[in-house]
Write a structure and sequence with these properties.
alpha/beta; Rossmann fold; seven-stranded parallel β-sheet; 8 helices; 44% helix; binds NADP nicotinamide-adenine-dinucleotide phosphate
């Protein structure tokens, strides 16, 4: 039996990778998945023998998520923290957004996160001790951004999910929160034009785009006993831009 077990979706790169790194560094046993691996993630597995469980599958596949959570419990014995991070963004004005793009964002960002959390909650309810769920939202859920309306809708859905689930699970000792980052320097925002990048930096009091490292501190905190009386909250981490 291990001490603290954390599960993170989308850990191969970007914010998810930074979360996996931080949780390993604080001593957790960690499990993650994404569609493909990455050399950086393979290096982390090699550096932490037996402490990092990695699988490859699509978050749109509910039965694969169920299998993954079962494997994590078989391997590590419990799940203390679930961080639903994996998401996709198709940028474009609504009028030209295709059905398959809408379906993909809803399937991965909303249903994939909800199914992952449900599977973790089923395990958390059967084990002793406190547990936490953290959903990765975005400031666009509330502040909006042209060309990101469907993506913003998926993130707003997760925030509604988090606050309701916090009420449902609080009496069982399971906390549920979300973090809402601003634009980050990751693959997801790589298509941002120089003009838009400049506009974002200009309206950000701290004068730059965020980095994954700026966000992991909040997730580390929310998924720790230091946040033991915090639930149903959305923590905005945006350099003051919204
Ligand atoms: N970047 C930003 O500006 C920004 C701002 C606010 C909020 N966020 C949020 O922060 C989170 C992380 O974003 P990021 O910028 O780190 O994105 P990223 O660099 O594109 O990384 C996304 C991660 O999720 C995985 N993933 C994507 N689709 C998947 C699928 N269908 N099934 C399984 N895994 C999948 C990716 O791996 P594979 O591609 O190999 O599957 C990767 O590991 C997301 O929830 C995003 O909405 C990002």
């Amino acid at each position: 039996m291990t001490d603290v077990v954390s599960l993170v979706s989308g850990g191969s790169r970007g914010l998810g990778f930074a979360i996996v790194e931080r949780l390993l560094a604080r001593g957790d046993w960690v499990a993650t998945f994404s569609r493909s691996g990455s050399p950086a993630l393979s290096a982390l597995v090699a550096a932490h023998p037996g402490r990092l469980h990695v699988e490859s599958f699509d978050a749109a596949d509910s039965s694969a998520i169920q299998g993954f959570v079962s494997h994590v419990v078989e391997t590590f014995g419990r799940i203390d923290h679930c961080i639903a991070n994996a998401a996709i963004a198709h940028e474009g004005v609504l009028a030209t957004t295709r059905d398959d793009e809408i379906d993909a964002m809803l399937a991965v960002n909303v249903k994939g996160s909800i199914v992952l959390v449900r599977e973790c909650v089923r395990q958390m309810l059967m084990q002793p001790g406190a547990a936490s769920i953290t959903l990765v939202s975005s400031i666009v859920a509330r502040s909006g951004s042209p060309g990101l309306s469907v993506y913003a809708a998926t993130k707003a859905a997760l925030e509604g999910f988090a606050v309701s689930l916090a009420r449902e699970l609080g009496p069982r000792g399971i906390r549920v929160n979300a973090v809402a980052p601003s634009f980050l320097e990751t693959d997801l925002s790589a298509s941002l034009s120089e003009e838009n990048r400049g506009r974002i930096v200009k309206r950000t009091p701290l004068g730059r785009l965020g980095l994954p490292a700026d966000i992991v501190g909040g997730i580390d905190f929310l998924s720790s006993p230091r946040a033991g009386f915090i639930t149903g909250q959305v923590l905005t981490i945006d350099g003051g831009s919204s």
